[in-house]
């Protein structure tokens, strides 16, 4: 069977000797009518029309804009079964579903401190819930756009944190992964709040930290603000590769590089998703804040994290709380997703938490 297609391909390439006369004929034909310059002009005009109309289409169709920001339809890797975290090398993780609203089930993973991995084999939800009684602190992880709670860079971070002795609880917002519903800013925040309250009941007086990555830094900050407003701040807020607000992020995202020179006012009128304005939110947060950002991040530029830190360090509500900014140099190449690789991370975290990790 194999030789046939091969010979057909070869046959196809064999056409080339006939080509010179053939091609010359065709091209003189093709360009004869309009002339090369005329054709190029038409192409250029079309590109110009597309270039100018895209922002307006995006502006007029909020659903396109939301899709571009959320990217929840991008499910990478495609074939992972979120019911089986063990397939991702997480042998001490359970998958389950919570219902923040009638008809909306969201998928959750609970990874116990890795020292419990042997005990965890074959255990059910009840056993996992009972492990919250251990003194180990809990980290609630809020992932960024695109992909699911099973994305590899996320899984690697759960491994690092559970290896230090923390419970890690992560979930897919409605509209992501196997969670029901469609994505919205309101939905993300209310799912996060629901899970936080659920965890707070389980964790009791143990530390409960929030960790947001990328778009999840907007959700985590928003959640922290809600909690601070209610007088029940989280134990800390960790923002990995955060942005400042969606406008600045949209402006600096590689996909919109061709539009980077649009005047700021135009961006303002194009951007409709505004609530996740972290710069404004940090004015209302009062809990320890840690910002991690790689200098070579091309998805959310380093300058945005730095700017956020500058604003946070002037924020009145954060006075008296630890506010730290940890840049990761260009040479380490951690980019947007690989800060978990830093051998310094355990030290950075114990320094920030002001205590040694439960598991050395
Ligand atoms: C289970 O996971 C733990 C923690 O990541 C690891 O140390 C251990 O080797 C794993 N065990 C198996 C059988 O894969």
UniProtKB/TrEMBL annotation:
It holds the Pfam family Abhydrolase_1. GO terms for molecular function: monoacylglycerol lipase activity; phosphatidylcholine lysophospholipase activity. The chain crosses the membrane at residues 43-60. It is a single-pass membrane protein. GO terms for cellular component: endoplasmic reticulum membrane. Residues 137-226 form the AB hydrolase-1 domain. Keywords: Endoplasmic reticulum, Glycoprotein, Hydrolase, Lipid metabolism, Membrane, Transmembrane, Transmembrane helix. Its EC number is 3.1.1.23. It catalyses: Hydrolyzes glycerol monoesters of long-chain fatty acids. InterPro entries: AB_hydrolase_1, AB_hydrolase_fold. It is found in: Endoplasmic reticulum membrane. GO terms for biological process: monoacylglycerol catabolic process; phosphatidylserine catabolic process. It is an enzyme of class 3 (hydrolase). PANTHER family: ALPHA/BETA HYDROLASE DOMAIN-CONTAINING PROTEIN, LYSOPHOSPHATIDYLSERINE LIPASE ABHD12. Lysophosphatidylserine (LPS) lipase that mediates the hydrolysis of lysophosphatidylserine, a class of signaling lipids that regulates immunological and neurological processes. Represents a major lysophosphatidylserine lipase in the brain, thereby playing a key role in the central nervous system. Also able to hydrolyze oxidized phosphatidylserine; oxidized phosphatidylserine is produced in response to severe inflammatory stress and constitutes a proapoptotic 'eat me' signal. Belongs to the serine esterase family. This is Lysophosphatidylserine lipase ABHD12. The lineage of its organism: Eukaryota, Metazoa, Chordata, Craniata, Vertebrata.
């Amino acid at each position: 069977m194999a030789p046939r297609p091969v010979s057909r391909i070869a046959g196809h390439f064999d056409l080339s000797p006939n080509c010179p006369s053939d091609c010359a004929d065709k091209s003189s034909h093709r360009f004869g009518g309009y002339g090369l310059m005329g054709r190029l002009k038409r192409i250029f005009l079309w590109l110009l029309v597309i270039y100018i109309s895209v922002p307006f289409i995006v502006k007029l169709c909020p659903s396109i804009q939301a899709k571009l920001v959320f990217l929840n339809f991008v499910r990478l890797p495609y074939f992972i079964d979120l019911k089986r975290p063990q397939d991702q090398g997480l042998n001490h993780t359970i998958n389950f579903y919570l219902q923040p609203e009638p008809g909306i089930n969201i998928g959750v993973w609970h990874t116990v401190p890795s020292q419990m991995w042997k005990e965890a084999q074959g255990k059910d939800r009840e056993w996992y819930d009972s492990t919250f009684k251990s003194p180990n602190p809990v980290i609630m992880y809020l992932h960024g756009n695109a992909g699911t709670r099973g994305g590899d860079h996320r899984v690697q971070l759960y491994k690092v944190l559970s290896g230090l002795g923390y419970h890690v609880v992560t979930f897919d917002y409605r509209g992501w992964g196997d969670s029901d519903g469609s994505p919205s800013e309101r939905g993300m925040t209310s799912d996060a709040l629901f899970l936080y309250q659920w965890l707070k009941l389980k964790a009791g007086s143990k530390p409960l930290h929030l960790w947001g990555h990328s778009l999840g830094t907007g959700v985590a900050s928003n959640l922290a603000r809600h909690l601070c407003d209610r007088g029940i701040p989280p134990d800390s807020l960790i923002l990995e590769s955060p942005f400042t607000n969606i406008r600045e992020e949209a402006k600096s995202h590689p996909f919109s590089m061709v539009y980077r020179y649009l005047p700021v006012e135009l961006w303002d009128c194009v951007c409709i998703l505004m609530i996740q304005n972290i710069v404004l939110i940090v004015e209302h947060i009062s809990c320890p804040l840690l910002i991690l950002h790689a200098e070579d991040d091309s998805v959310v530029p380093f300058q945005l994290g730095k700017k956020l830190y500058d604003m946070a360090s002037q924020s009145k509500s954060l006075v008296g709380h630890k506010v730290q900014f940890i840049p990761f140099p260009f040479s380490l190449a951690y980019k947007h997703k690989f800060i978990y690789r830093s051998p310094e991370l355990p030290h950075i975290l114990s320094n920030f938490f002001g205590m040694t990790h439960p598991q050395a």
